[in-house]
């Protein structure tokens, strides 16, 4: 009888499951039928001609917005984006652009610096590509003209200061390196700047570590700051380089149990004992958080910096008809201790309470915060004035002016280049001559008082008092520069150097001055490292 009851129960549950699947299938078919009828009727009866492809694109965009920002539809012409995500390369001029005064301005170069060698400069305004005026296009519109066959030449006209120049730029395959730079620090640590996780990242990092070990390093600093992530497989393989075989690295959970996986190290590490420090910040996401979370939960390294971004959603690229594709969120990431990396709840399914998880050594960890560092490095905050002149591109424009002058004379600033007092005075003149207006918080409060005085119909003596107060709080631009000299000098120096040196050179130049790298060196050099991993030192804070 018990056996019959079990069989009947199983048949009943199977029936419920089948019924549920049939209901979902009915809803799906119903949706397709209605959508197809709407598109057909619009195409046939709408008062104006319509573009069915545009209708599809817009409807897909609206539909995917209901999910999360990582699920995206790619048309056939978007294949470059897929190449960048998976392989880290694309065909183009190898430049970055930004909009300034509604014009396309060159804002940076790929690491190969080919466009620079072809004569292009940061700050140049793109006017024409071949016979097409591109002056006011956006980034995605420009790609139509910058893409093409590798080796093909484009006649590009740019505006530089008051001159219009004609340059021949080569379209080429731009390789975006996973490792921007690696080397040995002054305190004998190996430093590796890992910028992304595209195909080959693990092999590149392994080669870097093996090379550094020949230089008798005492520890390894893996810099994942501003690394947005990439391929899961590459992150897993990087973890395998440092943790013992069969160590849990990360797990993914999908609503389809057959698509949920536990990733464990399948090979022996190249070094399972050397001290490791991982640098993160709010720009460290996805695969960066997998590496940081694995090393942290397994007490294999210390995490230094600021809280990471908190992207714990897994995306899979699916091929669609007519050479289109979709990047769709298919699962969630979980660190070895079981905590979710995901910070933002797009689906309103996360409870308000926060569970506690533990590393293999018993250190408490919390989820839904991204990855929290073991040693917190206080973020360097710029004053309101410095932030404003930087965001308003005044330092960028000054960099244009100075680099153009250097370029004319053939002067190339090297790693010893510093901003002299005379050059800082030139910047003061530059900012004073500009029509830029900076208002302190006090000036803004006084403006509000003017308005209140008018509303209350106060006499002119109040206006006179406010005028005097406004003058006293209104600081001279030169004084403001002097008050923020150190920060401004650092920004100007970087702005000028990056116009003559690629990312590899820049990282080499500025690593020795990086306060976070210096903190990592100190932690790896003394007992702080072992104290953190033993749980005796929690949330070590540095400034």
Question: Would you mind describing this structure in some detail?
Answer:
The protein is of the alpha+beta class and 543 residues long. It has 4 domains: 2-56; 89-175, Roll (Pdz3 Domain), CATH 2.30.42.10; 187-373, Alpha-Beta Complex (2-enoyl-CoA Hydratase, Chain A, domain 1), CATH 3.90.226; 384-440 and 475-518, no CATH class. It has helices at residues 2-45, 52-64, 79-86, 114-117, 139-146, 201-213, 232-240, 287-297, 384-391, 394-409, 421-433, 441-455, 460-473, 477-483, 485-497, 503-511, 515-525, 528-533, and strands spanning 72-74, 89-92, 95-100, 103-109, 125-129, 132-133, 153-160, 163-170, 172-175, 179-184, 189-194, 219-223, 248-253, 261-264, 276-280, 302-305, 313-319, 325-334, 356-358, 364-366, 375-377, 540-542. The strands form 6 sheets. A 7-stranded mixed sheet has the order 10-11-12-15-16-21-22, sandwiched between helices. Strands 1, 13, 14, 17 and 18 form a 5-stranded antiparallel sheet that branches. Strand 10 (179-184) and strand 11 form a beta hairpin. The longest helix has 44 residues, at 2-45. The N and C termini lie far apart (73 Å). Residues 1-17 have low confidence and may be disordered.
């Amino acid at each position: 009888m018990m056996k019959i009851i079990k069989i009947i129960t199983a048949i009943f549950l199977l029936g419920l499951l089948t019924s549920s699947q049939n209901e979902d299938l009915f809803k799906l078919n119903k949706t397709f039928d209605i959508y197809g009828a709407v598109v057909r009727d619009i195409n046939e009866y709408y008062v104006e001609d319509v573009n069915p492809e545009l209708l599809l694109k817009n409807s897909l965009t609206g539909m995917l917005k209901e999910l999360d920002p990582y699920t995206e539809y790619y048309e056939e012409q978007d294949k470059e984006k897929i190449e960048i995500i998976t392989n880290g390369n694309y065909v183009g001029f190898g430049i970055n652009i930004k909009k300034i005064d509604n014009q396309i301005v060159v804002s940076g170069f790929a690491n190969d610096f080919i466009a620079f060698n072809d004569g292009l400069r940061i700050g140049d305004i793109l006017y024409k590509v071949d016979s097409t005026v591109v002056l006011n296009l956006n980034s995605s519109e420009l790609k139509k003209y910058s893409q093409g066959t590798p080796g093909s030449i484009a006649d590009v006209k740019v505006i530089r200061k008051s001159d219009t120049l004609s340059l021949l730029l080569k379209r080429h395959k731009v390789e975006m390196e996973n490792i921007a730079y690696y080397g040995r620090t002054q305190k004998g640590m190996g430093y590796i700047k890992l910028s992304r996780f595209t195909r080959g990242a693990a092999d590149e990092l392994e080669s870097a570590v093996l090379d550094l070990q020949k230089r008798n390093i005492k520890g390894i600093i893996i810099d994942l700051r501003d690394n947005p992530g990439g391929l899961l497989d590459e992150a897993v393989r990087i973890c395998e380089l440092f943790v013992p075989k069969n160590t849990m690295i990360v797990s993914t959970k999908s609503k389809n149990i057959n698509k949920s996986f536990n990733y464990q190290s399948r090979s022996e590490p190249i070094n399972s004992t050397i001290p490791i420090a991982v640098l993160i910040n709010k720009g460290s996401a996805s695969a960066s958080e997998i590496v940081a979370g694995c090393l942290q939960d397994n007490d294999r390294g210390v995490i230094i910096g600021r809280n990471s971004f908190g992207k714990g959603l897994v995306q899979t690229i699916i091929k669609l008809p007519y050479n289109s594709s979709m990047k769709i969120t298919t699962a969630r990431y979980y660190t070895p201790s079981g905590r979710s990396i995901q910070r933002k709840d797009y689906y309103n399914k996360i409870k308000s309470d926060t569970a506690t998880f533990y590393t293999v050594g018993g250190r408490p960890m919390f989820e839904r915060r991204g990855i929290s560092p073991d040693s917190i490095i206080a973020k360097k905050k710029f004053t309101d004035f410095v932030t404003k002149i930087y965001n308003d591109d005044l330092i960028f424009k000054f960099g244009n002016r100075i680099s153009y002058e250097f370029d004319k004379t053939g002067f190339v600033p090297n790693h010893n280049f510093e901003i002299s007092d005379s050059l800082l005075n030139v910047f003061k003149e530059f900012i004073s001559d500009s029509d830029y207006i900076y208002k302190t918080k006090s000036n803004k409060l006084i403006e509000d008082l003017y308005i209140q005085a008018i509303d209350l119909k106060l006499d002119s003596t109040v206006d006179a008092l406010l005028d005097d107060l406004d003058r006293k709080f209104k600081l001279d631009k030169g004084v403001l520069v002097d008050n923020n000299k150190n920060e401004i000098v650092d920004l100007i120096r970087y702005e000028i150097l990056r116009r003559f040196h690629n990312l590899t050179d820049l990282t080499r130049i500025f690593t020795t001055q990086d306060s976070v790298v210096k903190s990592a060196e100190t932690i790896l050099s003394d007992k702080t490292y072992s104290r953190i991993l033993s749980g005796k030192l929690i949330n070590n804070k540095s400034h």
